[in-house]
Amino acid sequence: MNISMLIESIRKHEGLSLVPYKDTEGHLTIGYGKNLDAGISLRQAYLLLDSDIETCMIELDKGFPGWREHPDHVQNVLLEMQFNLGRPRLAKFQKMWAALANDDYETAAKEMLASKWAEQVGQRAQTLAKQMAEGFPND
């Protein structure tokens, strides 16, 4: 078996779509003919998560230079917020960003909780704000 030839043939015959579309049978499809109606495997979910986290890091680098200078627990919170909100909505947390510029993690946490986002995500916001203010458990 020649895997590279197989891959090239599938790419050629299936075509690539980076956005979901309905195939000729009406199945939601993406990529090189991946049927999303059938769901994805756990491995594929992990690959997508890894890719999304990498994209979030790139977006944070573009929009919020210096975010990597904070402790790991703060970086994790910012990454998770970027993952959940996207850069435009995360940018609206101006008071949080001002507090972070002063390494004031308690105030940053309070600003996180004083938001519509905190109302929408409930316990997630509580958990991330606690992590922002106090660090990882057993830090």
Q: Would you mind describing this structure in some detail?
A:
The protein has 139 residues and is mainly α. The protein is built from 8 helices and 3 strands; from the N terminus they run αβββααααααα. The chain has helices at residues 3-14, 42-63, 72-85, 87-91, 94-101, 105-113, 116-121, 123-134; strands at residues 17-22, 28-31, 34-35. A 3-stranded antiparallel sheet has the order 1-2-3, with no helix packed on it. α2 packs across α3 (72-85), α5 runs antiparallel to α6 and α6 (105-113) runs antiparallel to α8 (123-134).
Give a topology summary:
Layout: H1 3-14, E1 17-22, E2 28-31, E3 34-35, H2 42-63, H3 72-85, H4 87-91, H5 94-101, H6 105-113, H7 116-121, H8 123-134
Antiparallel strand pairs: 1-2, 2-3
Helix pairs in contact: 2-3, 3-8, 5-6, 6-8
Descriptive terms for the model:
single chain; 139 residues; mainly alpha; 2 domains; three-stranded antiparallel beta sheet; 8 helices; 3 strands; 63% helix
The main pleated sheet reads as: 3 strands, antiparallel
Strand content: 5-15%
Secondary structure tally, helices: 8
Shape: elongated
* Tally of domains: 2
Side by side, the strands of the main sheet go: 1-2-3
The overall pLDDT average reads 95
**Helix amount:** 55-70%
What order do the SSEs take from the amino end to the carboxyl end, as H and E? Answer: HEEEHHHHHHH
Q: Give the N-terminus to C-terminus distance in angstroms.
A: 51 Å
Secondary structure tally: strands: 3
Rg over alpha carbons = 20 Å
Low-confidence stretches: none
What structural class is derived from the secondary structure elements?
A: mainly alpha
